[in-house]
Specification:
344 residues, alpha+beta, 4-stranded mixed beta sheet, two-stranded antiparallel sheet, 12 helices, 6 strands, disordered C terminus
Length: 344
């Protein structure tokens, strides 16, 4: 689909890209934790406002953060988050493969030349990435082009790649895709994005329960009314804040995985060619290259299927995409694609 003559390459500092995006990631995770604890404290305030109706909210809040009043709701919410994360980590691999026709390959069970090449490529990239454990390798029997990584640790890691991607990429491009996926594993992206997503969902659920509890309460103290105003405001703002933070986190980790692929490959063109081929494949087949439960895997894919969607809505799709635009990804690894259609 593309060749080297279509590229204008430049030198980029992928080490700086890794450092910058890593800082951004931990800022987002820290922000999620702060918001989650704040929602817990809001529940505690609602509880203690009932117990001490004459006490100002500021006094109650100060007592909570100084542990003069025990923040039971906040502690329970943190406990629920920990248990939920453990359960989610345990079943996440099965969830990621949900709705797909797949088979696992190993060094012993790989039968075709393509499967043997894929396993060898993953093994090579595992060594280059310095991973201690070989990820499990799955092939999804589908004609569309995509790949993803999963697992909450190196030991539990897996990579999955579609048959269409295996057939349509050359060895260098396949290697670049696997370098991208193993970079996700090496950077603990799955654990970070899962943690953020779970915290986002839990805090919205708790806020909804609190909202209905406060709205339908018969008590009308002034402090209660002030608290209700805060809860109503957060109930409508927090889901939007969560969405933007999750999208920002996902895009940041994609930039890191792309930089990691360049680091492992010592070249940027194989990944650029692979990304261009994947996007071209989605654009030419329109909406037919989707699978059941794609929303589950959307942020984990190397390419967001929706990004290629309906062309008249391209800018809107890009805005809500879990991945940066192709042009931005190519520019971040030092590639400008000379295309009159404006691909990059």
């Amino acid at each position: 689909m593309s060749d080297h003559s279509s590229f204008v390459t430049s030198t980029v500092d992928w080490r700086q890209s890794l450092r910058t995006n890593n800082r951004r990631t931990f800022f987002v995770i820290f922000l999620f934790l702060i918001i989650y604890i704040a929602v817990g404290l809001l529940v505690d305030l609602a509880i203690y406002t009932d117990q001490y109706p004459q006490a100002p909210l500021a006094v109650l809040f100060q007592a909570l953060i100084q542990f003069k009043l025990i923040p039971y709701a906040t502690l329970v919410m943190l406990g629920i988050a920990c248990v939920s994360l453990l359960v989610t980590y345990s079943f996440y691999d099965k969830l990621m493969l949900l709705g797909t026709d797949y088979h696992e390959i190993t060094a012993a069970t790989a039968t075709t030349a393509a499967e043997k090449q894929l396993y060898n490529v993953v093994e090579e990239m595992k060594i280059a990435a310095g991973l201690q454990f070989m990820p499990r390798v799955f092939v999804i029997n589908a004609s569309y082009m995509n790949a993803f990584a999963s697992g909450y640790s190196e030991k539990s890691a897996m990579v999955a790649i579609t048959q269409g991607l295996i057939e349509k990429l050359n060895r260098d491009e396949l290697q670049a895709v696997m370098a991208h996926e193993l970079s996700h594993i090496r950077h603990m992206d799955i654990k970070l994005t899962l943690t953020a997503s779970l915290l986002a969902n839990l805090m919205v659920m708790v806020l909804d329960i609190l909202f209905y509890n406060v709205v339908f309460s018969n008590r009308q103290q002034r402090s209660k009314n002030s608290l209700m105003s805060i809860i109503i405001l957060l109930r409508y703002l927090l889901p939007l804040i969560n969405i933007f933070l999750l999208l920002y986190l996902s895009r940041t980790r994609e930039y890191m995985a792309d930089a990691g692929a360049v680091e492992l490959m010592r070249a940027n063109e194989p990944l650029a060619n692979a990304l261009l081929k994947i996007q071209h494949d989605y654009q030419t087949t329109e909406q037919t290259t989707t699978a059941p439960h794609d929303d589950v895997r959307r942020a984990a894919y190397i390419f967001d299927p929706r990004q290629a969607g309906i062309r008249s809505m391209a800018s809107l799709n890009d805005f809500f995409s879990t991945h940066p635009t192709l042009a931005a990804r190519l520019a971040a690894i030092g590639i400008r694609y000379k295309d009159s259609g404006g691909q990059s």
